Each structure stands twice: as structure tokens, then as C-alpha cells.
Amino acid sequence: MKQDQVVREQLVKLLQGNLAYQPIGELLKGIKAEDAGKPIEHLPYTLWKLIEHMRLTLYDILEFCRNPDYKYLNWPEDYWPKENAPADQAALDKSINAILKGVETMVELIQDPANDLYKPLAHGEGQNLFREALLVAEHNAYHIGEIIILRRLLGTWK
Asked: Which InterPro entries does the UniProt entry name for this protein (predicted)?
């Protein structure tokens, strides 16, 4: 097997989870809107804020990877939701499903042999698809860990 294919397969596994932790879809399953907006003492965010932050950041990274006319967002205001809670269960489910779809979109970019993993993106500052895939995986893992801790504090994690 070619080394490039091995790297692509390992990136896919890293993005989808199930190496050091369960698949991302399993970890986000069963979150209720009423719990997603509950504040936890001494923490500056809710489950909803973390979930929406993951979605917003993921789609910004995907946009950066795919759009040569990419426009940089403002940090931190464009990466974090203003509201502490989702409008309803449908809004929460939509955000979670968008995260799962976004991860799969990154997987598709990685799996496409026409995409050079190491070629710097023309509109970037040296970033390449390999680096952006690692960024998505690291960012998601970091916040998934926080989500699990919040769910345990709320008593909604097994």
C-alpha cells in the first residue's frame, strides 16, 4: 500500500474517532435541548455553546480548504454563539447533524486522491489539507472531551 494512502486512512480514522474514543456521533448522541442550555457553576459555556462552536469552527475550516476566495472570520465573535441554549431540540439536532456531515465532508476531501495533502493552499499562509485535517481532529477531540465532562456534571452521561 502506498504511503500516501496509509496517511489518508489514518487521517480518516482520526477524524471519525474510534481510536482513542468512541465515534463522534456516539459521543454527541442523546443530548437534550433542555440540558444543552443549562449553565454549570464556574464554567463560561454550556453544552450548546460548545456544540455550536464546534460546528462554526469546522465549517470555517472547510470553507478555508475549499474556497480560494475565503474571507477570514473575526475571533472570537464569529466562532462562538451568543445564546447559551438552542432555540429547541430541532436546532440542537441540526447543529449536531451538521458537525457529523462536516466531518464526513473533511473525510471526503482527505480520501480524494486528486487532493494533494501537502500542497500549500494558494490563499493560505503555508497551510495544507493535511494540516487542516489535523486541526479539525484536534479541535473536535478537545471539545468532545469538554462535552463529556459537562454531560457528566449534568448527570446525562453514562
From this structure: DinB/YfiT-like
- pLDDT tens sequence across 9-30: 999 999 998 777 788 898 899 9
Specify the residue for cell string 459521543. Answer: 27
The predicted-structure confidence for 133-144, as pLDDT tens digits, reads as follows 999 999 999 999
Distance CA(88)–CA(32), nearest Å, equals 9
33 contacts 88 by C-beta, under 8 angstroms: yes
What number of other Cβ atoms are within 10 A of residue 67's Cβ? 11
Domain extent listing, the chain: 3-154
